[in-house]
Write a structure and sequence with these properties.
Oligomer: single chain
Shape: elongated
CATH superfamily of the domain at 314-508: Endonuclease/exonuclease/phosphatase
Structural class: alpha+beta
Strand content: 15-25%
Distance between the termini: 130 Å
Number of strands: 22
Radius of gyration: 42 Å
Helix content: 25-40%
């Protein structure tokens, strides 16, 4: 039984007291709410500020605007999902989409996106994380809807296959790769001058990685190397490497021609001289290449992970400088140069062929050279009736091009009269002038020589080219049969040339091609001893004119020295330090060469380490010599500028 307790009615005083307490509580709650509202507002403001202005520790900057300098983005690029592209062509978009849906009506497939592309085709993107299904979907739709053109879109990657023999064709590659990869295409396929082929294939990233992990696969008779071809980021706004246009901090060159750097036309329609806009803006010396090509320093500087190397231009200039010194030391009258630096050749007015690959230079200023013929890879000059040819045929040209250029050379030779000397870099091998077996180029040269009645002048098989482990004799000298017995002292010089090629020297003893040397007659009047002259003349009893002439001659001989032939002055930058560094460079090269021969007989660990040590020493000596030459030339230039400033 539940009992209800009676409620006592409240009096007036009690009700007033409770109402007072309630109002106080309400005021307190109101004040508390205001305080909480203020705190919440402050917190929100602080949160907003912290979102807009992160702490210094976590502060991030845009590309190229960090305090430390340009930084690449550390955020990984978003992986694109696999997709199926359905080409609409001349049909209606909606009808094609309905046809695709009908083909997949019985399949449990979910697409994350179905959209229309810029060309009007249908793009079906799979859900993220789902891989390997787009090929199956393509096959199913293709069976039900054979009239549709379908393409699978996956994150692509390039595979490079090297070392294919000359008999391998595209069909052979496709036959082998189809067994390993479901979908791929051959992007490029080429053959070099040595008959070795290379192929670049495009496929999905996953399949490319699996194929690259095999490292070697068998195609034809040979197991060839397979690897991923890494793509370099390139910005198509500034045309430099290492970033993309969305974060480009550089100059906008998107409207400039890739060939000449000017605006208003495209590279395919450009007839101007090749000029790199990047190198031009950076005030570099060499600009005669396409913008951003592999010969551009920006390609080496800005591609991440690329090993930075010294520009070879400094080495080439030093090699040309040393050529002049060597010519003076060995009393060389005429220099035959293959593959010269074109800027130096133009600046010094060398006689060159049409391509600028071969030159002739007269070190003896008294000689007059007359150009009688020019072609691609050769130039002929007339020196007092002696015809001299300078030649260069690149190893990068195919055999057909080599045969064409060589045929034009010998067509020119047979039209000349008199004795002929031909020298240059033919990049051909034969056991007649080298240790290598005869190749197709060497065989062709020998056939032309026999037809033109000319003889090889090379003595021995000493290598004229040496770089690292590679040694060969691509430089050939041959002459007309009437001159063969008059070529003497053909030799490969020991002096270092600061290039892979070594100096070749020989004499032509047909006749004196030097201008008649006018030996200065008379005496040095500036060193006359007057007392000695008078004393000598007084001693003789002179009665006839002949006696006077003889007495005067004897007196002059006693009183002053005779005039002598002036010595050849060295080049302005030559000094004792450079001479010592060149001698050291030559010694280091000889030691390195001897050790390499020793290692070829005994390939022990000790010999390998010693060879590596000597090679590094030789490289250091070459670098020191190049730097010494550059420093000497710079110092002399500064002195000249200071003298000019003083005079003004």
């Amino acid at each position: 039984m539940v009992r209800a307790l009676p409620i006592k009615a409240k009096g007036k005083r009690q009700r007033r007291k409770e109402n007072l307490k309630t109002s106080e509580v309400k005021e307190k709650i109101k004040d508390k709410n205001e305080e909480n509202r203020h705190i919440d507002t402050t917190a929100r403001l602080q949160h907003k500020e912290s979102a807009e202005m992160p702490k210094q520790k976590d502060k991030k900057y845009a590309y190229g605007k960090t305090k430390e300098g340009p930084k690449t983005r550390t955020k990984k690029p978003m992986e694109k999902p696999e997709a199926l592209l359905v080409e609409v062509k001349n049909r209606d978009y909606a009808s094609v989409l309905k046809e695709v849906k009908s083909g997949l009506a019985n399949e449990d497939i979910v697409f994350s996106k179905v959209r229309k592309t810029r060309k009007g085709d249908i793009l079906l993107e799979l859900e993220k994380g789902r891989t390997g299904g787009v090929s199956e979907i393509k096959n199913k739709v293709g069976k039900i809807c054979p009239t549709l053109t379908l393409r699978t879109l996956k994150e692509p990657a390039d595979i490079i296959i090297k070392g294919l023999d000359t008999t391998v064709e595209k069909e052979d590659i496709e036959q082998v790769i189809k067994q390993k990869v479901s979908e791929f295409r051959i992007k490029s396929f080429w053959e070099n001058s040595y008959g070795v082929k290379t192929a670049i294939l495009e496929m999905s990233k996953e399949e490319a990685q699996k194929l690259a992990d095999e490292k070697k696969i068998k195609i034809g008779w040979v197991r060839v190397s397979v690897g991923l071809l890494t793509q370099k980021k390139r910005c198509y706004r500034c045309l430099e490497y290492g970033h993309i246009s969305t974060v480009c901090p550089g100059q906008d060159r998107s409207t400039q021609c890739y060939n000449c750097g000017e605006e208003g036309h495209k590279a395919r329609n450009c007839a101007n001289k090749m000029t790199c806009a990047i190198c031009k803006d950076k005030s570099r010396e060499i600009t005669d290449h396409r913008t951003g090509s592999k010969s551009c320093p920006s390609w080496k500087e800005m591609v991440p992970g690329l090993r930075k190397t010294r520009s070879k231009n400094g080495g080439i200039r030093s090699a040309h400088d040393l050529l002049e010194v060597t010519a003076r030391e060995h009393n060389i009258d005429v220099g035959i140069i293959s593959e010269p630096n074109r800027k130096i050749a133009e600046k010094q007015n060398w006689l060159t062929d049409r391509r600028g690959d071969a030159s002739v230079i007269a070190f003896n200023n008294g000689l007059q050279l007359k150009v009688v013929d020019q072609g691609n890879g050769f130039i002929a000059i007339d020196l007092s009736g002696l015809i001299i040819y300078s030649c260069y045929f690149s190893p990068n040209n195919g055999f057909e091009k080599f045969e064409e250029d060589l045929s034009k050379l010998f067509d020119s030779i047979v039209t000349q009269h008199g004795d002929i000397v031909v020298a240059g870099d033919f990049n051909a091998a034969s056991n007649v002038w080298s240790t290598k077996a005869e190749d197709a180029r060497g065989r062709l040269v020998m056939e032309f020589l026999a037809g033109a009645d000319m003889a090889i002048s090379n003595v021995g098989v000493a290598p004229t080219f040496q770089r690292g482990q590679k040694r060969s004799t691509p430089d050939i000298t041959f002459v007309s049969s009437s001159l063969a017995q008059k070529i003497t002292e053909w030799q490969v010089l020991r002096e270092d040339s600061l290039s892979g090629h070594r100096y070749v020297k020989f004499n032509v003893n047909e006749k004196e091609i030097k201008p008649p040397s006018h030996v200065p007659t008379g005496w040095r009047l500036d060193k006359l001893d007057r007392k000695e002259l008078e004393l000598s003349l007084k001693q003789d009893n002179i009665q006839t004119a002949a006696e006077l002439r003889e007495a005067t001659r004897k007196a002059c001989k006693k009183a002053m020295p005779k005039k002598s032939v002036p010595k050849k002055t060295p080049v302005y930058w030559w000094n004792e330090e450079i001479r010592e560094k060149r001698q050291l460079c030559t010694v280091c090269r000889r030691k390195y060469t001897r050790q390499r021969r020793k290692k070829s007989k005994d390939d022990s660990i000790e010999n390998r380490e010693k060879e590596e040590s000597l090679r590094e020493r030789y490289k250091s000596a070459k670098l020191l010599l190049q730097c010494a030459i550059a420093k000497s030339k710079e110092d002399h230039w500064k002195e000249l500028c200071e003298e000019v400033d003083k005079d003004t």
